[in-house]
Amino acid sequence: MKKVLMLHGVNHNMFGRRDPVQYGTITLAQINERLQTLAAELGVTIESFQTNSEGAMCERIHRAFEARQDAVLINAGAWTHYSYGIRDALAILECPVVEIHMSNIHAREAFRHHSVFAEVVKGQICGFGVESYLLGLRAALASF
């Protein structure tokens, strides 16, 4: 069975309470539940990991490499726009990596328009709320 890792970044533990105009009222637990349901339908396993620590995120990516993860989905939040440490950790991976954002980062503040991950990920899905996650899982699996 294919193994997918979902990485949730900084402040995502606050989904449901944080800026409902951009992110809606869905919680991180509900997002993970939706991903689990779709993964089961698609015949894959998915593990979710959330941290507010950049170092912990890099360490989890390193473990994904060592475990030969089949695919990685990442919504790194604000780290997307400046974390070269996470970018370099993602570059180590040999599996498809899909960058996900609930909001359309290209229609927001100028600093959000650029992703430092863009050069090392398979693709980016943004602007569809929780559906961005589900589309990201489907896209990662289509990359095999």
TrEMBL record:
Reactions that this protein is recorded to catalyse: 3-dehydroquinate = 3-dehydroshikimate + H2O
Entry annotated with the keyword Amino-acid biosynthesis: yes
GO biological process: amino acid biosynthetic process; aromatic amino acid family biosynthetic process; chorismate biosynthetic process; quinate catabolic process
EC numbers on record: 4.2.1.10
Keyword Plastid tagged: no
Keywords of this entry: Amino-acid biosynthesis, Aromatic amino acid biosynthesis, Lyase
Assembly: Homododecamer.
Family: Belongs to the type-II 3-dehydroquinase family.
Protein name per its UniProtKB record: 3-dehydroquinate dehydratase
Gene name in the database record: aroQ
